[in-house]
Design brief:
Helix content of chain A: over 70%
CATH architecture of the largest domain in chain B: Orthogonal Bundle
Strand content of chain B: under 5%
Largest interface: A-B, 87 and 92 residues
Largest sheet of chain A: 2 strands, antiparallel
CATH topology of the largest domain in chain B: MetI-like fold
Structural class of chain A: mainly alpha
Oligomer: heterodimer
Number of strands of chain B: 0
Helix content of chain B: over 70%
Strand order of the largest sheet of chain A: 1-2
Order of helices and strands of chain B: HHHHHHHHHHHH
Mean pLDDT of chain B: 88
Structural class of chain B: mainly alpha
Shape of chain B: globular
Number of domains of chain A: 1
CATH superfamily of chain A: MetI-like
CATH topology of chain A: MetI-like fold
Radius of gyration of chain B: 24 Å
Chain lengths: 298, 279
């Protein structure tokens, strides 16, 4: 009797679970393990049976390759610029939206527009605005504001090309960050601010001793999620630098993975790079969570 | 008096900053729109203008007619709609199992699915490409759909499980006592009560599938199977200077996004706030 009931339970559950489980095993768990295996081979995509075991060679090749090192540096700098950029501006926008204002819905929609626009479209848009000869940005800087004496060739320089890429990363992400912050701000009881005001605390004091500590979980969440996002950045770089131009100096880790794999068909090397990135992401997330958790306990 | 003045001043500052932000966000979009209406001769005009004296729709007619963007739009729509419907179905089935059913290995399975939220998606592209090749799914819209469903599965299941758990259990218990099966409770009690949650899943999945680039970029080589993001990117790389057409296609690609967002804005904001933080 009991066995029969258990069996019906399992059969019922199977109907609910199987479709998702099959997809999940086929396209996520399977690939993860498969890719791990590939990363230790000189993998032949046309005839996998001819693949040659090379041990950790792909990993060593990546880590000792100046192009990979440069790509890793570019990726880290991108995270270091765009994550604080999005968080600071996002917090300011959230605080402004949290005031007693009319048309909050309108502002929310406008600020969210870049978030829902595809990366492809906004990347091309920034590429056009930053073009060297008749670009809008050069025109504003040179002829309107007179900050620069002559046109800057943003997209031809291995360092300057990151200006549009970084600005785009911030511009596109602020709306989401602001909405998450806004949700956090709205959870803070109004009475706390009122009490502090009665006690004579200045707005800055109130921000420091009420807003920031109570937003700490939100800050932690955003820090981790935005950092993961930044380390996985890929489309803007691929389109704006056309895959690492000039001289393979402008890659992100993932654009390098992409060119290695799909242009040079070096699947083992590409897999090793993606595992290296995953490890970097994992380590950084764990460190961030540890550091901020500890502080909350004080 | 002093306080009132102070309030007014802070209000002016608030609105000034907010509208500055609106300008920074909006001007690039406006510039894109204006450029899409400029004749080719004005694409690199100096000084670059934020308006055009001779607006023309020729970029739209060329892009949509000659360059197959109509077909790409249709491909994107089919992929996004099928992905969305399937994801809602598959993830709500899973979520219900995790929220309400009893079966061995439940916790273990749940953590396995959670793992899916932590994997950087692009890291899976290489093996997904190889597996799709074996399953003969490359160069097929179906190959896009199955991967898109899977990539959304963890997040949406997690989200819906939260919604389902919030439904009062008495309703289901009453139905169970009346002899209803779990299957019919799921369809007749739980699903109708979960509209807000299902709307959030719908919007997020639709936008994801509509905008997705990395997987489509590697999985589709056949011209007629392209979706809009890859078509736009490839078009630009082949016609370096025809920005008018690039942006005409981009504006067309943006329309469904803006419509979906405008219609579901309420659910959307709530979805972000609740899933972002408490999900």
């Amino acid at each position: 009797m009991r066995i029969k009931r258990n069996l019906t339970q399992i059969l019922t559950a199977a109907i609910f679970i199987l479709p998702g489980l099959v997809l999940f095993l086929t396209f996520i768990v399977g690939p993860m393990l498969y890719s791990f295996r590939i990363s230790f081979y000189d993998w032949k995509i046309v005839n996998p049976a001819q693949s040659i075991w090379v041990g950790t060679d792909n990993y060593v090749r990546a880590l000792t390759n100046p192009i990979f090192q440069r790509a890793a540096l570019n990726t880290l700098v991108y995270a270091l610029v765009t994550v604080p950029g999005q968080m600071i501006i996002g917090l300011i926008v959230a605080i402004l939206l949290n005031q007693d204002i009319r048309n909050r819905g309108f502002f929310r929609v406008v600020y969210y527009l870049p978030v829902i626009t595809s990366w492809v479209i906004v990347s091309l848009l920034f590429e056009y605005m930053f073009s060297g000869q008749a670009g809008l940005v050069n025109y504003i800087l040179r002829d309107v504001l007179h900050i620069i004496p002559k046109n800057i060739l943003w997209l031809a320089d291995p360092v300057l090309t990151f200006v549009p890429i970084h600005l785009l990363g911030i511009w596109k992400g602020v709306g989401w960050t602001a909405i998450i912050f806004l949700a956090g701000l709205q959870e803070i009881p109004e009475q706390l601010y009122e009490a502090a005001e009665v006690d004579g605390a200045s707005p800055l004091d109130r921000f420091r001793s009420i807003t920031v500590p109570l937003l700490r979980p939100t800050i932690l969440f955003l820090l981790v999620v935005l950092t993961i996002g930044a380390l996985n950045a890929y489309i803007s770089n691929l389109l704006i630098t056309n895959g690492g131009n000039p001289l393979d100096k402008t890659h992100f880790i993932l654009t390098l993975m992409y060119t290695a794999t799909f242009n040079r068909l070096d699947f083992g090397y590409g897999s090793a790079i993606s595992y290296l990135l995953t490890m970097i992401v994992f380590v950084i997330s764990v460190v961030q969570i540890r550091l901020l958790r500890q502080r909350v306990e004080f | 008096m002093g306080l009132k003045q102070q309030r007014r001043r802070s209000k002016i500052i608030t609105y000034t900053l907010l509208f500055m932000g609106v300008a920074i966000v909006f001007i690039p979009f406006w510039y894109m729109f204006v450029t899409s209406l400029k004749p080719q001769a004005y694409i690199f005009e100096m000084p670059p203008r934020l308006w055009t004296q001779q607006p023309t729709l020729s970029n739209y007619t060329t892009a949509l007619g000659k360059d197959l963007f109509g077909l790409y739009f249709l491909n994107s729509l089919v992929v996004a709609v099928v992905t969305t419907i399937s994801t809602v179905l598959v993830s709500s089935l899973l979520a219900y199992a995790f929220a309400r059913l009893k079966f061995p290995g439940k916790e273990w399975l749940f953590y396995l699915f959670l793992l899916g939220m932590m994997i950087p998606p692009v890291m899976l592209i290489i093996p997904q490409f190889i597996i799709a090749k074996h399953l003969d799914l490359l160069d097929k819209l179906g190959g896009l759909v199955v991967v898109y469903i899977t990539m959304n599965l963890s997040m949406q299941t997690f989200l819906l499980r939260g919604f389902f758990e919030g439904i009062p259990k008495d309703l289901e218990d009453a139905a169970l006592i009346d002899g209803a099966s779990q299957w019919s409770i799921f369809w007749k009690v739980v699903i109708p009560l979960s509209r807000p949650g299902l709307s959030v899943v719908t919007i997020f999945t639709f936008l994801y599938a509509w905008d997705e680039f990395p997987w489509a970029h590697v999985a589709i080589k056949e011209t007629t199977r392209r979706t809009l993001p890859i078509a736009i990117a490839l078009f630009q790389s082949q016609h370096l200077t025809e920005w008018g057409q690039v942006f005409a296609a981009s504006i067309v690609a943006l329309i469904p996004v803006v419509v979906v967002f405008a219609v579901f804005q309420r659910y959307f904001i709530r979805g972000i706030s609740t899933t972002g933080l408490k999900g």
